[in-house]
Amino acid sequence: MQQLKVCELFAGVGGFRLGLEDTGNYRVVWSNQWEPSTKMQHASLVYEARFGAENHSNQNIEEVPTSAIPDHDILVGGFPCQDYSVATTLKNSKGLIGKKGVLWWSIHRIISEKKTPPKYLFFENVDRLLKSPSTQRGRDFAVMLKSLDELGYAVEWRVINAAEYGMPQRRRRVFFLGYHKSSSAYKAMAKSSPEAWMTSEGTIAQAFPVFKEKGALCSFELSDDLVSISESFNKTGGLSPFLNTGSCINGKVSTLKTKASQTMPATTLSDILENGSADESLFIPEEELPKWTYLKGAKKEIRRTKAGFEYNYSEGSMVFPDALDQPSRTIITGEGGKSPSRFKHVVQTRKGLRRLSPVELERLNMFPDNHTQLAGISDTKRAFFMGNALVIGVVRGIGEALFRKIKELEK
Ligand SMILES: C[S@@+](CC[C@H](N)C(=O)[O-])C[C@H]1O[C@@H](n2cnc3c(N)ncnc32)[C@H](O)[C@@H]1O
Q1: Range of the domain at 29
Q2: Which residues form the active site (predicted)?
């Protein structure tokens, strides 16, 4: 079977591309990355420096005409998590649904306008997506599943914590795959039982094995139209119906709770530390230690709002310094820079306490060393990229399993 042609949206510094092309079975034919509200397009510059400028677009995806995007087999991306409510009635409003600036609708537009829509979709997002917004838990994901159903896709999803499969970072993200009606994977999914697909026969289960946790499989139909789903889904409140594993085919959602079943040796924070002496700027100066200790510590105190109202504030302590014998905590976009913080990683070394280097942050996402190194790009920016990116081992694993599945089914 030939390599699958990939279109990479919201490409950042290329996490999907690295993971998929690593397998040898995928080739990116077009990519797009644009950072709103900044003149310097740092992530796009890194992307072009690593992969070349050809077939890369640095334009707001909302303004890219679908005709500029070549045909592809699989559309991938980690899109920003936003409010997906549908603002307009859909009747007679072909192409324009949802609010401007909501990037899901750019993905939707590309799929719906392509004469030959991609057979496969592969997206990543924060796991909060399954539960948002807080006033109508699960509505956003329901809108997404329904719109994909209308476009002819079946979907399977799973929340995966990379560290549970031997990767160096505890990063919990929802990954979902879409199979177009015209694909053999869609037909295979339609034949299988939802539970079997989610726990053993599906692509994600084959990439990252799980077992079903106690509790019944929950099923329901997304039978209303998009506007009604947007307006009324889970209006009465309560928990999101979407559990950490699920599928949706022909508008029928099936979801259950699963747990990683494979115990793999952990990759720990100490495994990814750079050998040799670290840059001086990473070390925490003696005089700043009290501030770090305070921020990382447990607190119970009275605070005051700007308007002068007093309130009780409490939070637990963070492990400080970070445990070296475990996978790291999640990298966030504010990981870089010298200022003391509750969330930045701090490790104890022979020379003293220090923050992580840009290369160490890249290793936590399994990127190649110095992938984001480029003249004019600060360490803080490099940390920001990694906070936005993903653990590429997860993409590689799902990519391999998908290719294997397609090959088997098409034999
Ligand atoms: C969650 S990050 C994805 C990071 C990527 N997976 C990686 O490995 O680096 C989302 C990306 O979407 C980009 N983005 C936000 N709005 C955009 C728009 N309107 N058009 C194109 N890209 C956009 C952001 O700049 C950011 O790099």
Answers
A1: 4-263+391-410
A2: 81
